Amino acid sequence: MLHEQSPVSAPGCYQCAVMTEFWLISAPGEKTCQQTWDKLMMATTRTNNLSTNNKFNIPDLKVGTLDVLVGLSDELAKLDSFVESVVKKVAQYMADVLEDSRDKVQENLLANGVDLITYITRFQWDMAKYPIKQSLKNISEIISKQVSQIDNDLKARASAYNNLKGNLQNLERKNAGSLLTRSLADIVKKDDFVLDSEYLITLLVVVPKTNYADWQKTYETLAEMVVPRSTNLLFEDQDSGLFSVTLFRKAIDDFRHKAREQKFVVRDFQYNEEEMKADKEEMTRLSTDKKKQFGPLVRWLKVNFSEAFIAWIHIKALRVFVESVLRYGLPVNFQAMLLQPHKKNMKKLREVLYDLYKHLDSSAAAIIDQSAVDIPGLNLSQQEYYPYVYYKIDCNLLDFK
Length: 401
Prior knowledge:
Layout: E1 21-28, H1 33-46, E2 51-55, H2 66-98, H3 105-108, E3 110-111, E4 114-115, H4 116-121, H5 136-174, E5 200-208, H6 212-218, E6 232-236, E7 240-248, H7 252-261, E8 265-267, H8 273-328, E9 334-341, H9 346-357, E10 389-394
Antiparallel strand pairs: 1-9, 1-10, 2-9, 3-4, 5-7, 5-8, 6-7
Helix pairs in contact: 1-9, 2-5, 2-8, 5-8
């Protein structure tokens, strides 16, 4: 077959420092496809060092009829966008789930057990998943069903995990923050209260630290029937202290009103051991459930990210095959090539490729704006038109806020 295995450049470290954009192109085979490859290498690496290149191996796929290819061209474009969106969703959700360890997300985003750049530069068609004896349409339908299933499963799993995480965060928020708003259940003890008294009640009051002296001087006189020397400091945060005070039930409203005038805030709190125990148990349950679900969820995301990414690159291969046959005709004779542009040389690389391939299409006298051209069977939506088949693959899949 014309798409031979090529020597692969050593991948190196493929993290953020590396240019993650690839240009997947094809050009017609000359006397041999090796000549097409050699010409590209001469123009882009040996003379100018504009890109790192690899042959991109596409097997002998079933061509089918021209009508089918034209229809498939549009369908594959839509499928490409859909699968890319699912790949990005899985990657982004992996980063969300890893939370504080999201710097480790890159090492979990693998395809077939290798980093993405290694997978792309050493791409081999997966005959078991996508048998090449099937028609192109059947292969695209296999991919579509597979990735739709991943998308649906992701929605269900994300919804369940997010609900659990949200409920836990709400409880954690209640147990943190300022004394004015946080739950007091884990701060107070039974001994801090006068309980089961028909006449007396213990209130909890938040006092700014700067007002401690005022509180001690005035709390007994904020209402009638405050029990003398009944205040205790139970807890402090950065700004305030939580004091208990005991008084007669009938004086509650008066005490609350006068306390507010002095910038002392009476918290609504009744000591109820059953309720407090239930809250603590709920928090423990949610925390345990989250830990239990975390491992299996991360494993599922890793496996299905790999599956979706592999499917995505196979779609790119299908698109190159279909567009190359539509552009260059039969018999099938083209070389697919993967270019990793060097960042500062992208414009120059584009010019060199234009010079190399402008003879393939006289209408591409310049890079044609999409709105100005409509060539049946060539899916050109949302991308520039070049005289050679061209698709971009961007491995930067995460949008870190």
